[in-house]
Design brief:
Length: 295
């Protein structure tokens, strides 16, 4: 996925939040995610055999998602902040790499676009690329709110900031009541994606309205796979390198997991490591700026 800038947001940070959250949603419920793209998964392919490697021999590009949807059929998906010029040509490059790695397979390609732009074309004469695009901004939030797995996307749909704030509130309710054993993962994705389109004051207001305290945010994040990994890593490093060093590294990893790579993180983690309640503050923050101004 190419890094591009979204108005009002940090380009690299938004890119990583969008990319990471979309990958998580696809893994939580591949059937539901593919249904959003208009693709049905065949029962002839065992669930364990659906996800395919996203790297290819001799090719530097890494695909966002590659799935075996049926015998002889593959689905390739890319997540893009914007559909800029040259996107279709990159999808053609991906198609060539996929067809080389998986000869004889039909390849269906879809680009999921967060922001502006339109998918361009490399069609020429009788050649047709056949790549489709799903523009999240063109779909009403209600389309995503019909499913707890897709509900985290509601804040990225069509509407004014007020509409999207309401959609985010509804998404939290849908996830909380219908998310089952994946509530923690889905809430984390919803909270992360909401920071792309909604400002911190709006998110704070919604969190208060739905009763999401700092403690509850920390609790649901601690239940996720990444949260559990970071907690255990912190314990191990605390034993091996001393509690303060382990705490600092754990905070840095958590900051990168939530907000992407940023040159401010090492110094910020060092300052936070000396503060009581630092972990809960990191989990409740909507951006690095929140922490940078208070640490």
């Amino acid at each position: 996925m190419q890094e591009q800038r979204t108005p009002g947001q940090d380009g690299a940070g938004s890119d990583q939040r969008f990319d990471r959250s979309m990958r998580r949603l696809a893994h939580v419920d591949l059937d539901g995610f593919c249904a959003l793209l208009g693709v049905e998964l065949s029962g002839e392919v065992a669930p364990a055999a659906r996800m395919l490697p996203t790297t290819f021999p001799g090719v530097t590009r890494t695909a966002d998602l590659l799935v075996r949807t049926a015998p002889g059929w593959l689905l390739h998906v890319e997540y893009q902040l914007t559909a800029g010029r040259g996107l279709a040509l990159r999808m053609l490059d991906y198609r060539a790499a996929i067809m080389t790695a998986h000869p004889g397979q039909h390849v269906d390609q879809v680009v999921v676009v967060l922001g502006g732009g339109r998918l361009d074309s490399v069609d020429n004469g009788d050649f047709r690329l056949g790549c489709r695009a799903l523009y999240l901004r063109e779909h009403p939030p209600d389309r995503f709110l019909a499913s707890p797995v897709l509900a985290p996307l509601a804040s990225l749909g069509r509407g004014t900031p007020h509409d999207l704030a309401r959609a985010y509130t509804q998404a939290l309710h849908v996830i909380g009541t219908k998310g089952g054993d994946r509530v923690a993962e889905l809430l984390e994705s919803a909270a992360t994606l909401a920071t792309i389109r909604l400002d911190a004051p709006i998110l704070d207001k919604i969190r208060r309205e739905v009763g999401m305290t700092v403690e509850s945010v920390a609790e649901f994040y601690a239940q996720t796979d990444s949260g559990k990994f970071l907690v255990e890593r912190g314990r191990e490093e605390g034993r091996e390198e001393g509690r303060e060093a382990g705490r600092e590294e754990t905070l840095a990893e958590l900051l990168r997991e939530r907000f992407g790579a940023d040159e401010r993180i090492p110094a910020l983690a060092e300052r936070l490591a000396h503060q009581a309640g630092a972990l809960r503050s990191v989990l409740a923050a909507t951006s690095l700026d929140d922490l940078d101004s208070t640490s």
